[in-house]
Amino acid sequence: MESGKEAAANAGASARARVEKARAAVQGQVDKAAAYTSGHREAAEVNWEAAEVKKQQRVRAAEEEKQRALRDNAKDHRGGAGSGGGTDKSPPTEGAHGDAEE
């Protein structure tokens, strides 16, 4: 059951990354097209390069977010299955020690 939840969460993370990458590509095309409306060739080239860099940064950020989500999903899956129902949480243990010391 947990692996199904992890797979669904991973699919969601991948879908979000694809959407963000597509948005970055479209916005990059818009920025590149807008770069040539300035009328100055040198300015257009600089703007075009800036648009490409911005697009690549957005694509990289989307991929990093996806990888972070995949790691978190795997960590949640391992932590949820191996915790034994959460009996190893700190607050109840500290309370037991505090009662024993008094």
From TrEMBL:
Compositionally skewed regions (Basic and acidic residues) per UniProt: 51-79
Biological process terms in GO annotation: embryo development ending in seed dormancy
Ranges of compositional bias, category Low complexity: 1-16
Family matches, as InterPro entries: LEA_1 (IPR005513)
Stretches the record annotates as Disordered: 1-102
Source taxon at top rank: Eukaryota
Entry similarity comment: Belongs to the LEA type 1 family.
Protein name: Uncharacterized protein
Species this chain originates from: Brachypodium distachyon
Annotated gene: LOC100845700
